[in-house]
């Protein structure tokens, strides 16, 4: 109970029974604080509470945005929004069935995770909870000699964010680089062949048994599909994951304000660099953004700000009148959400996210720089673990703040002739 002096307004502490022993004796509590066991709390009102019947347009959840482009905003999502998004997810999860396993390691505060779990439950798919720190045998919180969660759960389906898929590819690449020349050549040639050719079932089986079996078993060896969202997935990572795991990677696009559902790739689409066509019941339009020089008349494909309509569009932002007026508009008999993302639609009707309005910074000579594109390109380097790119409109260049990958940095240092690169500190290497 050491926290109580820092929380003077707390007057009641409810404690679960299995935590009572050793937590605090009543005499050690401040005089104005009451300790209530949960068991006693449950007995205090034995009458069942009658919940009001929920209507379709009632708010089901208040989900906050990530705040990546400003302060987090509370998004009022209705029961209709959630159910419409679930229906879209069901269509995309069509190859999953009762008894399959969904291994999840994203937080439920993420709208994509919430809708995915609700959809899995409705299909009859079991949910196994994990963490990026215990996912595989090589994860930092897995004790040596024990197995990661993926090997134990043997999932049929996972939903990830691009940075985790990038880390999987980097981890495999690192292990391959430690092998002898012949093994490296065989593995890299197999990846190249699979990404450039449509392999027959026999060739796929042969490569699995001889080359990719160990990688696939790291995730249990039962995967049917991998979902990716929340940020752009590079073509390099997309192709490498498909080649190594022999499963489709379905990239989707959505936002908290659309209950995670706008577009998604079909599971038989082998192209990369796009997010698929509109989900069931969702309308997608592009509108001109003159300041950024994006127009629907652009060649070879129309470009512009992505706006979305349909049953997935949120009711409103919570207590934010000005933001509601900016983000939602009524047009052509539909209520549209302005995403702030810049998209391009290809001849097959598939959406590609190419920029974000708030990522574009005009430098002092008038040219626009996309901070997101710079970050994405630099983040693909093996020696960079994370990166933040910023710009000042009064300057003519951008600045990158980089978190290096320690082992890769030491390797680069050795290659450029820095003596004792294996023994000096990371700080000394960064300052070199």
Automatic annotation (TrEMBL):
Pfam families, sorted: AMP-binding (PF00501)
Biological process terms in GO annotation: long-chain fatty-acyl-CoA metabolic process; neuron differentiation
Reactions performed catalytically: a long-chain fatty acid + ATP + CoA = a long-chain fatty acyl-CoA + AMP + diphosphate
Enzyme Commission numbers on file: 6.2.1.3
Entries under SUPFAM superfamilies matching the protein: Acetyl-CoA synthetase-like (SSF56801)
InterPro entries, alphabetized: AMP-binding_CS, AMP-dep_synth/lig_dom, ANL_N_sf
UniProt entry keywords in alphabetical sequence: ATP-binding, Fatty acid metabolism, Ligase, Lipid metabolism, Nucleotide-binding
TM helices/strands, residue ranges: none
Nucleotide-binding as UniProt keyword: yes
Broad EC category: ligase
Domain AMP-dependent synthetase/ligase residue range list: 36-318
GO molecular function terms attached to this record: ATP binding; long-chain fatty acid-CoA ligase activity
Highest taxon of source: Eukaryota
PROSITE patterns reported in the protein's UniProt record: AMP_BINDING
GO cellular component, as recorded: endoplasmic reticulum; lipid droplet; plasma membrane
Membership in a protein family: Belongs to the ATP-dependent AMP-binding enzyme family.
Protein name: long-chain-fatty-acid--CoA ligase
Organism: Petrolisthes manimaculis
